[in-house]
Amino acid sequence: MMKTQIAHALHSVEQFIQLWKGQSMIQPEQFISESVTFSSSYRGVVTSRENLISFLKQDFISHDHVDIQLSNVVKKSSGSTSKISGYFYAQASKNQEVYFGGMLIFTLKNEYIQDIKIQLNWVDGNKELLSHWILPLDSLWKPNDPMTTISSEFNSLWQKDWMSNEDAETQIAESWYRYAWALDLADTSLHIENFTENATTDLPPMGIQKGKRNIISTLKAFRMPWPSIQHYGEPLHIEIDPSHKSAYMIIGRIIPNQSTDKDGQKIYAAHYQIELQCDDDTLWKIHDMKYISGWVRQG
């Protein structure tokens, strides 16, 4: 039942992305609640399905082409309510191109979207193509800067006891998504559950770090001066030990405006080699993680 509910919820989120691009073939009444709330950092807040549809039509009304992709997708549920979070990276064009991306969180009742939060984190290319948007800041915080739409300490799917009935491979992939989310949103407290006590990492430019405390302290210092940081990734290989207490995973690092080759095949700018351990609470934690530069393909 829970898996079916999550599948329906994910389908609704995918339909929203199609609607945002202006390519939906399904009526919004089939997946968006009439009383939906939409909060965004780039254009503010709207309520009601009718207003949201009109609002979204203005986002890319003058563009010739729009593509929006999701990654780092995490799915949870509690009763009839589902939560789905993820990263998005996108491209819009009209003679020239603009690239942009960020994070989003959906709350659904059964398959109907009740609440949407979108945080725009970065923009690259011709920013004039998004002149009607509020673009993310390129500098550190200063007084009177706008509030963020997504605050991990309050909105993260890992902050409450949301259930996950996913298979082991999905839970293992989620361990890296949790790491990336915590790093990109500066939620240091969320890192506490990301690593084993004696974990090691080798991540440029931080170098080799040993022990949970050293890793988290270094990640915190690394993150602070970089407000637009965002780590897109996709599992390329997962291997689980027969004991189900350890696993090995390869994550491909996605660079949004270079995610495919000239033939349209997925490519990755680097990869992570990750060893994981499963604790007594069935939570997969990173035990060793290395970042390897260099372009790779799946397989």
UniProtKB/TrEMBL annotation:
User: Cross-referenced InterPro entries, in alphabetical order?
Assistant: NTF2-like_dom_sf (IPR032710), SnoaL-like (IPR037401)
Q: Which Pfam families match?
A: SnoaL_4 (PF13577)
Residues covered by the SnoaL-like domain: 168-289
Q: Output the SUPFAM superfamilies linked to this UniProt entry.
A: NTF2-like (SSF54427)
Descriptive protein name: Nuclear transport factor 2 family protein
| Annotated source species | Acinetobacter chinensis
